[in-house]
């Protein structure tokens, strides 16, 4: 193992927030001039923009997003196995919510921190409301999953109970268990002589009760269900699509683990541990050691959730709650259905026609069709290209860009920021290949990327061993930007080719997330990206002059706020004011405040916010001019786009940053302007398509609830389907130019 650079790792305690459920209504604004400095001269309404009632809660708005995800699992419009996938996504999201958000809240509570959030809640209030909201949403899940499983039976896809099987099927599963699983199972008894066993994170467990003989007490044991490492949760019966959960097979064959016992009872339980803690920096520490300790801590961190089956006896439940140090009122959840439902991912790819979305095959970018010519020639001719994933291929654009750079004799250097990647995308292999080919390769690896720390440490070590210059970003900040620069000897000078994206260099997510990327050889952007990498490798930011790109935390927040205020000033000078933003989240209080001020001044604001949104739209006198929609569809909406009318000198930007305090103040993020007119029109087409959508969109109400839009006609199609069609149209030059002319004309009007 190589020794990584020594660097400080700052502890960031994140204050999480929750929002209570209120009935949907327009919220009136109280006039209180004595405490309201923000005055709307048109209607003389005053607003205290620090009042907590104007800020929705971060945690509960995120839970409401998962209610929308769950709706996709219940929507009959979606194919059955796609609906099953949404159940798995929902379960995975809730697991991570408890690991990250609830875990952090519990740390605040344990530290006796009672400071109120911007929406006026203590950590204790948030935990209580969070538990209530999770219970309400999971009630919907518990009612709807059995219905879906029943519908799948029409296609002979079944998740069966072991005790309902025929004897020959039980015999088959018992033999399979003996030969393939039994040696991996370890029963752990606990009694006064044996302490309660360690329960690992996200583990599914069987609580075994061995009934006592005369004069004896019942014995208890724990059996961990060994899912993973090649062991499936759902065991297939023969060549059918019939499956039995592994925990039932183990439970129904406990006599193999406890031979001679006359009566064996069992229950199931599932635990989630805190993953929200980060280690406190104390002096200079080896970053690798610190991250490895944090990963170990996460594995053994305090448990934040216990899920049990409804039939568990109260005495046993109390025993587990006491042993795990939990609160029986807020930390314990019951489910009559399968636990650990993220394992349903195992079943979603069954090759059965009609149960999946129609196949989607990303197109090659219309300017990258010629695979015989160098991508650098094509990029110089185009000057800039806008990549739209997953509608256009990530492999034939970004991976091709890196692959050609690794093997081009004229390429002198490659610099890259790496937050997440995967083996199949070959990013690390190509960087190693470039180094072997004599290129100077420098990579900034973020090894504090949540849940990818171990993988990123391995990537970093393999690159260091290949001679790549690996650094770990700026002390105290996560490097979240997605930037790749290639320096090439073109004719008489070095030219910089740059990719700036909204998503990670990860081929898997590039097929599942909607993201944008800019490929450009613009000299000013190249200059800025050079400065960016010098900042990332030295941590020195003083007097760095970024001409075009916006970089967080140095300037991005101020620049975005200035653009919002500029729309207000333009309104006062008689111009139209218009702001449109697409982001995964809107959580930063300062940004919400600035948008409120702009709305009060008459600026029209369209927000496309996927999940967390603190802002209340449609409040009389405060946010009348703001609309918020959330889009949940086949692909995860992940791109970030910013638009400002700017008195007719329209400005478009894309980048990696969400409008969250952590992104704007505690991470290195990059947003780049899009100046080429044809690319602006492409972004306008995206905005129009998303804002006009009637199939996948939810309109946010002023109380934080959402109402799903209803299609205006039976022929309506969703915005993501339209963008698939647009990607095909881009390959037909004449048709695409006609489409852009139509969009451009609509924009002028």
Describe the structure.
This protein folds into three domains: 184 residues, polyphosphate kinase like (2-Layer Sandwich), CATH 3.30.1840.10; 164 residues, Endonuclease, Chain A; 199 residues, Endonuclease Chain A (Endonuclease, Chain A). It starts with 5 loop residues before the first strand and ends with a helix. The relative contact order is 0.10. The protein is built from 19 helices and 31 strands. Strands 18, 22, 23, 24, 25, 27, 28, 29, 30 and 31 form a ten-stranded mixed β-sheet that branches. Strands 14, 15, 16, 17, 19, 20, 21 and 26 form an eight-stranded mixed β-sheet that branches. A six-stranded mixed β-sheet has the order 5-7-6-10-12-13. The protein is α+β, with helices and mostly antiparallel strands and 749 residues long. Helix 1 runs antiparallel to helix 2, helix 1 runs parallel beside helix 3 and helix 2 packs antiparallel against helix 3. Strand 16, helix 11 and strand 17 form a beta-alpha-beta unit. Helix content is 35%, strand content 20%.
Topology readout:
Elements: E1 6-7, E2 38-39, E3 46-47, H1 58-74, H2 80-110, H3 123-152, E4 157-159, H4 167-180, E5 187-190, E6 204-210, E7 219-224, E8 234-236, E9 241-245, H5 246-251, E10 264-273, E11 285-286, H6 287-300, E12 303-308, H7 314-324, E13 332-334, H8 375-382, E14 384-389, H9 395-407, E15 411-418, H10 427-436, E16 440-445, H11 453-465, E17 469-471, E18 478-479, E19 482-490, E20 493-501, H12 507-510, E21 513-520, H13 523-538, E22 550-552, H14 556-572, E23 578-583, H15 589-600, E24 604-609, E25 626-631, E26 636-637, E27 641-644, E28 651-655, H16 661-665, E29 667-674, H17 677-691, E30 697-700, E31 706-708, H18 719-730, H19 733-748
Parallel strand pairs: 4-9, 12-13, 15-16, 16-17, 18-29, 21-26, 23-24, 24-25
Antiparallel strand pairs: 1-11, 2-3, 5-7, 6-7, 6-10, 8-9, 10-12, 14-21, 15-19, 19-20, 20-21, 22-29, 23-27, 25-30, 27-28, 28-29, 30-31
